[in-house]
């Protein structure tokens, strides 16, 4: 009997709850809130679609539009659960907090990449088409794409790399195309017998004749040090950033040609050995060679 009474009480309670949920007034309230939420969410999305792309890249604007759109729907659902079904807001917050913690741990990397992508956009350390170098990661190449989660780089040997924005944002970024001009620097050794002023003049003339070497700042050449086998000249020439490599390779070749024409020697490393006593050189003849072989044979037999 007790079990039967308990079952009847549970059934009555469940029917009462369901009857409360299917109250015509509550159903009308739910429909009104859903319609209002749909209209509000659509208006918010349309406004953001017209404004955000003017200021933000496509990926970031799409993510923000979705965030506000679904946020409006979430607010509408919370209102329905609290007012129509009498579910306390505190319980929703607790459940949402627990769900947020679980989702947060699961999507920590995703959120970090998302925020880093937004920070990179506003900080603007690079853009598509820039040649960059990441010394911490040993990566260099040309930026081919920047999106909300990652950045793609094509290395100098033609390999496409996808770098998460979190790692990129926390790395040292050397933007090779960040300025309009870069300096080309050479360390050129000439022999001690060569004319230093003539060598300096040859380098400056070669730089002035180069079509991409800049006249301002003016090419600068000076003696940097006296090496073991050569006088080291330091030559500094400025070039447009996107022509830097062409200037560096072609100008160095032109300097070598001019040195050969003008008799400026680029020496090989040389070492001078000094002995406290004169060395006696013994010329080896067939007889002395035969005696040396016989002596070596006798020593091996021993």
Summarize the helices and strands and which ones pair or pack:
Blueprint: H1 2-21, H2 24-55, H3 58-83, H4 89-106, H5 108-123, E1 131-134, E2 139-146, E3 150-155, E4 160-164, H6 165-169, E5 174-175, E6 181-190, H7 196-209, E7 220-226, E8 231-240, H8 244-262, H9 286-301
Antiparallel strand pairs: 1-2, 1-5, 2-3, 3-4, 6-8, 7-8
Helix pairs in contact: 2-3, 7-8
How much of the sequence lies in strands comes to 15-25%
Task: Walk across the major sheet and give the strand order.
Answer: 4-3-2-1-5
Low-confidence stretches: none
**Overall SS class:** alpha+beta
Task: Give me the Rg, rounded.
Answer: 40 Å
Main beta sheet, described?
5 strands, antiparallel
Q: What is the molecular shape? A: elongated
The total beta strand count reads 8
- Tally of individual helices: 9
Instruction: Give the N-to-C terminal Cα separation.
Output: 119 Å
| Second CATH tier, the architecture of the largest domain | Orthogonal Bundle
Q: And the CATH topology of the largest domain?
A: Helix Hairpins
In the CATH scheme, the class of the largest domain would be Mainly Alpha
Mean of residue pLDDT?
80
The number of domains is 3
N to C succession of SSEs: HHHHHEEEEHEEHEEHH
Share of helical residues? 40-55%
Please characterize this protein's 3D structure.
The structure is a single chain. The protein has a five-stranded antiparallel beta sheet. The chain has a three-stranded antiparallel beta sheet with strand order 6-8-7, with helices on one face. The chain starts with a helix and ends with a helix. The protein has nine helices and eight strands. A hairpin with a 4-residue loop joins strand 7 and strand 8 (231-240). By secondary structure, the protein is α+β, with helices and mostly antiparallel strands.
